[in-house]
Amino acid sequence: MRLKTLFIVAALGAATALAGCSTGGTIFTSEYGAKKDSGYQLPQIPINKVPRQYHRQIVKYDTSEKPGTIIVDTSDKFLYFVMGDGKAMRYGIGVGREGFEWNGTARIAMKREWPTWTPPAAMIGRQPELAKWRGGQPGGLSNPLGARALYLFNKGGDTGYRLHGTPEWNSIGKAMSSGCIRMINQDVIDLYERADVGAKVIVK
């Protein structure tokens, strides 16, 4: 009987290790495999090349904001989806490079799957080769907005900023974008399913 008990304890310990418990919960390192989505074949992410802190995970997170709120920490490159009970789902993100940073409070006005990307006129001015997409680049695996986009509006209307996927998984944890918040496609799909239109978004 004692041997059986020891076996069960060892098995539970191994399962916990595989689940990848972190500060307050589970790390979803196994969730970055290839997957079909709306007719597209998302490639597997070489997640071992992404620093572990940027893997999707449930963490302890104390905040007075209500569940469903999204809090973006641009300095640490984390996005938190508040879950309540002192916990949040945390995702690694890429943020705006120097000169393109932004912060403030907004709300999700729209959500789109495999969205069209239309480069702003100012971006086309900096990168004339993007002029071919002046009328919009259709959604797809090479589209800069990735698999999902959540559109941020404030009292003044469309901020021009998005929470969106990216095919450039190696930009996560870095300041490389033109101001939008980038996420690994598998992560933005997960966030898209959790976040409601009208949800509060705090970028700091």
TrEMBL record:
Q: What class of enzyme is it?
A: transferase
A molecular function GO annotation: acyltransferase activity
Record-annotated active site: 164, 180
Give start and end of each L,D-TPase catalytic domain: 68-204
Instruction: List UniProt keywords, sorted A-Z.
Output: Acyltransferase, Cell shape, Cell wall biogenesis/degradation, Glycosyltransferase, Hydrolase, Peptidoglycan synthesis, Signal, Transferase
What is the residue range of the signal peptide feature? 1-19
- Entry's Pfam families? YkuD (PF03734)
Entries under PROSITE patterns matching the protein: LD_TPASE, PROKAR_LIPOPROTEIN
Pathway it works in: Cell wall biogenesis; peptidoglycan biosynthesis
- Identify the EC number(s): 2.3.2.-
Please state which protein family the record places this protein in: Belongs to the YkuD family.
Protein name, UniProt field: L,D-transpeptidase
Q: Which organism is it from?
A: Neoaquamicrobium sediminum
